[in-house]
C-alpha cells in the first residue's frame, strides 16, 4: 500500500509540473549560462546585480526544469498543427470564443451576414467591400503598423444557424472560420459561437509578435464578440471619447 501511495504521489507531482519542451543540450547551456550570470551578479552588486541575479536564476530554473514559457508560447497546439496540415499551411493560429446577445437569432444573423457591418465591431478590420453575394474584399490592420488584404468567400450559409468562410487563393493571410447562432437558454437572446484559424505572417515568430502587440487571435475573437454584443444591444461601441462625453453630459451645470 505504501508503494502504491508513493507511486500515486509521484504521479501527482509529475502531473503538476510543466511539460519539458527543451532538449538536453538547451538545458545544459541554459543552466551553465545562468550560473555564470548569477556569479557575475553577486560580484557586481547594486541594482544591476540584483536584476542580473533574477535573470540568472530564471535561466538556471529553465535548465533544471527543461521548460521554457517562451518556447511554449511559440509552439502550436495539437489542433493548430492539425489545421495547418489539413489546409497545407506552414503553421496555424486558431481561437474560439462565445457570447450571449440579448437579441433574437434572426436579428443577430442578419447583422453579421451583411459583411459591410463587420468593421463596426471587428477592431482590426479597416474595411470589407462586397464583391458579390458570397465574395468580399478585406483590408485588415496587422502588427507593426502594416495592413494586409485578401478576398474571402462564404462557403456555408444556413440562415439563422451558421456562416462559414475562407480566404481565396493568393490571400496575404490565409484564413478560415465560422460563426454559429443558437437561441440562448431561458429566452435570453442568442448564443453566438465563433472560431477562426489563420496562417501567421512569418510563421511561429509571427505568433509571438502578435501576442506582444496584443493581436493574439484568442483575444481578438473575445474582444470582437464583446463589441458585437455592444453594437447590437446598445447601437454603439463605447470609446474613451464617448465615455468622456457621457460623463460630461451627466455632470450638473455649474450655478
TrEMBL record:
Domain Inner membrane protein YgaP-like transmembrane: 20-79
Domain Coenzyme Q-binding protein COQ10 START: residue ranges: 101-206
Gene3D superfamilies in the cross-refs: 3.30.530.20
Start and end residues of each stretch annotated as Disordered: 236-255
Pfam families named in the record: Polyketide_cyc, YgaP-like_TM
InterPro entries, alphabetized: COQ10_START, ORF3, START-like_dom_sf, YgaP-like_TM
Family, similarity comment: Belongs to the ribosome association toxin RatA family.
Name this polypeptide is given: SRPBCC family protein
Organism for this UniProt entry: Roseomonas populi
Amino acid at each position: 500500500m505504501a508503494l502504491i501511495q508513493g507511486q500515486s504521489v509521484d504521479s501527482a507531482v509529475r502531473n503538476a509540473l510543466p511539460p519539458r519542451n527543451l532538449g538536453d543540450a538547451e538545458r545544459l547551456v541554459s543552466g551553465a549560462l545562468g550560473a555564470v550570470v548569477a556569479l557575475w551578479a553577486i560580484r557586481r552588486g547594486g541594482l544591476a546585480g540584483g536584476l542580473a541575479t533574477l535573470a540568472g536564476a530564471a535561466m538556471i530554473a529553465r535548465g533544471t526544469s527543461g521548460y521554457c514559457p517562451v518556447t511554449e508560447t511559440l509552439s502550436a497546439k495539437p489542433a493548430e498543427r492539425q489545421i495547418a496540415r489539413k489546409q497545407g499551411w506552414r503553421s496555424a493560429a486558431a481561437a474560439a470564443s462565445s457570447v450571449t446577445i440579448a437579441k433574437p437569432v434572426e436579428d443577430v444573423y442578419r447583422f453579421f451576414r451583411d459583411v459591410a457591418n463587420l468593421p463596426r465591431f471587428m477592431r482590426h478590420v479597416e474595411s470589407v467591400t462586397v464583391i458579390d453575394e458570397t465574395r468580399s474584399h478585406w483590408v485588415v490592420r496587422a502588427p507593426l503598423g502594416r495592413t494586409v488584404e485578401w478576398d474571402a468567400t462564404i462557403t456555408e450559409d444556413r440562415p439563422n444557424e451558421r456562416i462559414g468562410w475562407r480566404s481565396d487563393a493568393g490571400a496575404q493571410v490565409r484564413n478560415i472560420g465560422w460563426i454559429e447562432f443558437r437561441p440562448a437558454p431561458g429566452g435570453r437572446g442568442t448564443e453566438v459561437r465563433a472560431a477562426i484559424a489563420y496562417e501567421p505572417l512569418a510563421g511561429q515568430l509571427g505568433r509571438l509578435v502578435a501576442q506582444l502587440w496584443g493581436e493574439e487571435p484568442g483575444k481578438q475573437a473575445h474582444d470582437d464578440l464583446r463589441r458585437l454584443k455592444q453594437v447590437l444591444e446598445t447601437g454603439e461601441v463605447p470609446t474613451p471619447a464617448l465615455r468622456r462625453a457621457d460623463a460630461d453630459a451627466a455632470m450638473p451645470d455649474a450655478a
